[in-house]
């Protein structure tokens, strides 16, 4: 017998037990025809590395991107709620290509009634944005919401979209231009060669949409002309000027029609913008104010200077001053001039209703040592905005900079208006407000407080992603919304972990097992449910990648490397995937494939646990164990009841008929077995005998755990092992355990003799997004009831109560109740 065979021999009793165990995974047995390699590399999917984007996920040594500079003069016609403007555009061709024409985005044309967006909007159905409608379903009549009627009437009553009155080159010659929906092609008089630039002018105007009516990313909000509201408008201007579409190395012109959901990707450039508004308006804008002496009072300028080093907010325009400013309008005008360098877009807001607070964020470093965090809001913002808006801005910059880079711009702003949440360079639009009560106080619910903190963190976070790390939102919404939702969850839980931030793995399980899931990598306009697909699922995936798969040290290093590599550049998904792998040193192709390219979900079932014991080959030990195991089996019910009835056994009544086998059973040991045992020991090599005798002496517990992958998405198996002595232990098994049999695996776990396993739980912290936690327990637990005994309010509705107002309510007495009943009778 060879050494190898003798080595196998003493393990044979254990192996034979393993082989003979019934298969708990027989129903999903892996076969040749249906094998799928969940760990195959992504090279077949990702674009081939090149001189522009290398295999490490870095910008290549010939990486390029265009630059577009804008000089804009814009006037807000408050009474007409209209914009009139002229712009001078300078386009720098940094590409290796000669361009015969340029493509320009005309986003306001989306609101035309003949736009692709309007014509392709379905009546009801999944994924609609804006006023809700409900389509007919079987016998249920179709319904048209009041919001939908309001939108229809606004579009019918107002001429929307751009009026383009002039497109000329710098010599004053008309440039031929063709409008195609939300795009305009400008044909150049002379082809633009690499390294050259061209300058041209556009005059344009458009009527501003009412945001509450059409559900847009910008627009005006009118406050009722009554004593409580005071009238007046807030104007939020975004996607307001004709701007160049991006020309890229991976797609050339990104000239896909703007339907409404897929946002945009733009070129970086420098802006100088003159904004003419009523003289009593306060303007918040992308960029730095260039003429404060022309538009601010001396007191306001002094307050702004004081705010730079303040520990808490300083009012530049106090709430009381804003209320006073609302009372009377003016026919006079002021022009606010802003400059912004190296930004990819420009937005602004204007209103006489704005209070304005500010506080300097002393960031330090070389990029931008001082950042002015500022908030603009009407009296309706109240204490909620005074307390939390600017502080949330600063908290965001503090956290995000640790994960990426120092905030790169001089200002970061939060503006209250009709838009619930939207981001642009240096400025964000955010929605929640207080409620005016009959006693003159302003109150808000816990939900509104949480919403404001959360939306400010999220939207200011967007100034990092994608306003600085310039991903293509038109194609891949998740690259900005998903990455940013992950980071806003990190920042949010550092603010208040009790707020449900919606980025935990448990938050995505419902979507992942639904029939409306599509791969994360789906183009933005084709996603069925944008929220869970572009925000929650990628955020939860990155949360899992950080906390469960890579660990914080590796993840944080790789993520920061990605952010800094692509700061002020345009990354694609492949650049993110490759950077995270290259910088962490971990092969993550299986993770990207499963989470981003498939609709598989996580459902790992622990089907069975078998306890094995090593045979000692010593008959005096092994036969005794067998006898004990036999005695522990349940007795025959008939035998039990015969004893209870006192029936006497025949052999007990007549002992003279007993023989040898009444004193010895099948587990009696003879010298034949003992001799065989000694022969077995002598046949072992010295090292084999040493190993064997140690295993017998230690008498460890051997457990085989059988797992099924019911959801298809391979993930690490995280175990909580509970022992008879009351202790618990965690074991983390990498996802690679599934590499050969992705449908089912078995795992051997060995414990010390005194560590008897009593139960096992898979994913005890709910960190892998497992959609069914009930098959994670062995033995199975009693499933907690999910049936309510009575119809009641949702648990989450508690945070929507306005406790600030409700706490003023007086407790009624029995006399109050009787008096109330009498009033009803009368």
From TrEMBL:
**InterPro entries linked to this entry:** Peptidase_M1_aminopeptidases, Peptidase_M1_dom, Peptidase_M4/M1_CTD_sf
For this protein, the record's Pfam families field holds: Peptidase_M1
Q: Please provide, in alphabetical order, the Gene Ontology terms of the cellular component aspect for this entry.
A: cytoplasm; extracellular space; membrane
| Keyword Protease applies | yes
Please list the GO biological process terms of this entry.
peptide catabolic process
User: Where along the chain is composition biased (Acidic residues)?
Assistant: 813-826
Question: Matching CDD domains, A to Z?
Answer: M1_APN_like
Question: What name goes with this protein?
Answer: Aminopeptidase
Please give the organism. Answer: Alteromonas hispanica
């Amino acid at each position: 017998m060879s050494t190898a065979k003798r080595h196998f021999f003493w393990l044979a009793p254990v192996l034979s037990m393993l082989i003979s165990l019934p298969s708990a995974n027989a129903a999903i047995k892996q076969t040749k025809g249906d094998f799928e390699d969940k760990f195959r590399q992504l090279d077949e999917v990702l674009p081939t590395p090149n001189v522009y984007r290398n295999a490490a996920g870095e910008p290549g040594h010939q990486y390029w991107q265009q630059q577009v500079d804008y000089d804009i003069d814009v006037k807000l016609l408050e009474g007409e709620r209209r914009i009139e403007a002229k712009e001078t555009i300078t386009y720098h061709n940094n590409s290796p290509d000669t361009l015969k024409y340029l493509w320009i985005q005309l986003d306001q044309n989306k609101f035309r009634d003949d736009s692709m967006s309007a014509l392709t909007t379905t009546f009801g159905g999944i994924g609609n944005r804006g006023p809700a409608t409900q389509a007919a379903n079987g016998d249920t009549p179709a319904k048209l919401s009041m919001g939908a009627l309001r939108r229809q009437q606004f579009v019918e009553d107002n001429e929307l979209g751009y009026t383009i009155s002039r497109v000329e080159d710098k010599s004053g010659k008309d440039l031929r231009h063709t409008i195609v929906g939300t795009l305009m092609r400008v044909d150049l008089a002379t082809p633009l060669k690499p390294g050259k630039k061209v300058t041209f002018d556009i005059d344009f105007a458009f009527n501003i949409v009412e945001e509450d009516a059409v559900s847009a990313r910008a627009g005006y909000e009118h406050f009722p002309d009554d004593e409580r509201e005071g009238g007046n408008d807030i104007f939020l201007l975004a996607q307001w000027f004709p701007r160049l579409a991006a020309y890229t190395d991976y797609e050339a012109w990104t000239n896909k029609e703007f339907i409404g959901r897929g946002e945009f990707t733009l070129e970086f450039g420098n802006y100088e913008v003159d904004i003419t508004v009523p003289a009593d308006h306060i303007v918040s804008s992308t960029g730095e104010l260039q003429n404060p002496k022309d538009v601010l009072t001396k007191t306001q300028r002094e307050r702004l200077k004081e705010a730079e080093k303040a520990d808490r907010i300083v009012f530049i325009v106090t709430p009381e001053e804003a209320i006073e400013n609302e009372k009377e309008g003016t026919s006079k005008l002021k022009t606010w001039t802003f400059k912004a360098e190296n930004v990819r877009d420009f937005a602004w807001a204007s209103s006489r209703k704005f209070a304005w607070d500010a506080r300097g964020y002393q960031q330090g470093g070389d990029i931008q040592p001082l950042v002015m965090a500022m908030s603009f809001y009407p009296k309706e913002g109240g204490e909620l905005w005074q307390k939390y808006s600017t502080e949330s801005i600063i908290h965001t910059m503090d956290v995000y900079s640790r994960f990426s880079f120092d905030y790169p711009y001089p200002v970061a702003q939060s503006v209250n208006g009709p838009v619930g949440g939207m981001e642009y360079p240096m400025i964000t639009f955010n929605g929640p407000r207080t409620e005016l009560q009959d006693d003159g106080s302003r109150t808000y619910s816990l939900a509104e407080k949480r919403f404001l903190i959360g939306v400010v963190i999220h939207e200011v976070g967007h100034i990092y992603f994608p306003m600085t790390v310039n991903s293509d939102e038109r194609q891949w919404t998740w690259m900005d919304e998903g990455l940013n939702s992950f980071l806003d969850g990190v920042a949010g839980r550092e603010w208040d972990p009790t707020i449900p931030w919606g980025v935990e793995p448990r938050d995505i399980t419902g979507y992942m097992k639904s029939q409306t899931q599509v791969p994360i990598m789906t183009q933005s306009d084709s996603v069925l449910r944008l929220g869970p697909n572009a925000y929650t699922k990628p955020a939860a995936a990155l949360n899992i990648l950080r906390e469960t798969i890579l660990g914080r040290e590796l993840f944080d290093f790789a993520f920061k490397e990605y952010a800094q590599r692509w700061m002020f550049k345009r990354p694609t998904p492949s650049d993110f995937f490759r950077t995270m792998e290259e910088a962490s040193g971990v092969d993550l192709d299986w993770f990207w494939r499963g989470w981003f390219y498939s609709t598989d979900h996580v459902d790992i079932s622990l089907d069975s646990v078998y306890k094995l014991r090593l045979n000692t080959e010593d008959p005096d030990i092994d036969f005794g164990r067998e006898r004990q195991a036999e005695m522990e089996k349940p007795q025959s019910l008939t035998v039990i009841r015969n004893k209870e009835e006192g029936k006497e056994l025949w052999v007990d009544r007549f002992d003279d008929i007993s023989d040898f086998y009444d004193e010895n059973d099948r587990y009696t040991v003879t010298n034949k077995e003992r001799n065989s045992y000694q022969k077995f020991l002598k046949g072992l090599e010295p090292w084999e005998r040493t190993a064997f005798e140690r295993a017998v002496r230690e008498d460890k517990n051997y457990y085989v755990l059988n797992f099924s992958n019911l959801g298809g998405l391979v993930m690490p198996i995280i175990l909580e092992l509970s022992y008879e002595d009351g202790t618990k232990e965690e074991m983390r098994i990498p996802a690679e355990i599934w590499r050969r049999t992705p449908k089912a695996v078995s795992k051997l776990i060995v414990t010390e003799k005194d560590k008897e396993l009593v139960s096992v739980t898979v994913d005890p912290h709910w960190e892998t997004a497992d959609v069914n936690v009930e098959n994670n327990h062995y033995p199975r637990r009693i499933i907690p009831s999910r049936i309510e005994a009575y119809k009641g309010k949702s648990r989450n509705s508690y945070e929507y109560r306005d406790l600030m107002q409700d706490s003023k309510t007086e407790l009624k007495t029995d006399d109050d109740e009787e008096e109330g009943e009498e009033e009803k009778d009368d």
